[in-house]
Design a protein that fits this description.
Layout (H helix, E strand, L loop, with lengths): L7 H4 L6 E3 L4 E3 L2 E2 L3 E4 L2 E3 L2 E8 L2 E3 L2 E9 L4 E3 L2 E3 L1 E4 L4 E3 L2 E3 L5
Parallel strand pairs: 1-4, 2-5, 3-6, 4-6, 5-7, 6-8, 7-9, 8-10, 8-11, 9-12, 10-13
Length: about 100
């Protein structure tokens, strides 16, 4: 899998994308039926079909399709995914759980 597998620059431009910018901190859950980009921080869970994480997440992430965990990511919580790309330097303090293995 190449580093461009999920083409993060293209996805940032998708209609309906939820973007938490570098200067933002969200306290609460994010529930989206579209693509989610986290460049800032979130204290809460994320539920979405696709996500690009490049910031701080203190909570669980459940993605029903694909998730990209970029170099600047710091995740404290479980990551539930169908397809995942983890870049060198990313940190995950929690479990990686494949969606098909969930009860």
């Amino acid at each position: 899998m190449s580093l461009n597998t999920f083409k993060k620059t293209d996805k940032r431009r998708k209609t309906g994308t939820t973007i938490i910018g570098t200067s933002a901190m969200v306290v609460g859950n994010i529930v989206s039926d579209s693509f989610v980009v986290i460049d800032g921080g979130i204290e809460g869970d994320i539920f979405a079909p696709e996500a690009l994480i490049n910031g701080l997440v203190n909570g669980n992430i459940k993605v029903t399709s694909q998730v990209e965990v970029a170099t600047n990511s710091r995740i404290t919580g479980d990551l539930i995914y169908k397809s995942v790309l983890i870049h060198e330097g990313a940190r995950i303090f929690g479990k990686l759980l494949h969606l098909d293995d969930q009860n």
